[in-house]
Predict the 3D structure of the following.
Amino acid sequence: MDISLQELAEKLKNSGDSGNHDGYRIVYHIRPDGDCIGSAFALALGLQSIGKKCEVVGQDPVPRIHQYMTDQVAMDSLENPVWIAVDSAAERRTGCYQDQHFTFCIDHHHNTFQEKTTDYRHVEQDCGACAEIIFKLLKIMQIPITKQIADLLYTAIVTDTLCFRTSDTSAQTFRIAAELTELGADIYTIGRRNAFIKSAGRLKIESALRDSFHFTCDHQILTGIILLQDLETAGILDSDLGNINSFVEEIEGVRIGVTIRELTNGRIRCSVHTNGNISADAICREHGGGGHFHAAGCELSTDAQTARSILEETSRKYLLAEIKN
Ligand SMILES: [Mn+2]
């Protein structure tokens, strides 16, 4: 069932170490980004500070860019934990944990965790970053936000809002960012690391992606492809690419931008970014995915070129429907 932030705070204070449970296991989503990592580790640190044992797990390792923060977080080892999913949107986004029963689910996507797999959901759709919810939760629980927690939450906000530039960025986002700054978050370093400095490999991928661009519908739909071969040539890992999916948004006039990425498991990940009144979430739902109104994703079992045709067709349908309205 859906619960308020206040109810979530009370439940987290009173469980985890009751019955035969020995702590909280916090799960972040597959192909993790700054938001799920920052949210999960900040929540763990906060709960640990009030005496709860915590562990953070995810199918895929923490991206290298964030490890300097997460390496500093001591994990407890648990045998019978209470499970919490953060920032994950849907069961399948927890990867190898998707058959797990989650007691808590904290999210800011158009969440599709089912009643049968989750006891308590707290979802604030389309708020700038999941980390905003974690920040408010820790405050309600009267848990002190240390510099270490502030760095994690600020990283989450900067990465998920593309440095305060997404349509989900709100006054709340700025207020929380300002408070995190006062609490000691290293905003200069975090901003530069995550939203400004680019590695040589990243530049090569941007150029490969640009070369692959295909425009349709009077330049309003744009698709780009990143193949595993491109990553190899650039000497970069998929997990190092950060917000590459927003690259298609930088081109003027594009209404729907799709980034198609070949995955090592043979599948294709399609990331859809839209603007105006076109729902990326709806486009991706047609292919079993979802996310936010202006940014969402789905996975297809096909090759990159076929994925491009499929997504171009679905995008065309949504673009025409919007033009008609
Ligand atoms: Mn997020």
User: Anything to note?
Assistant: The chain has a mean pLDDT of 96. The two ends are 35 Å apart (CA to CA). The CA atoms of residues 68 and 197 lie 17 Å apart. The chain has two domains: 5-195, 200-324.
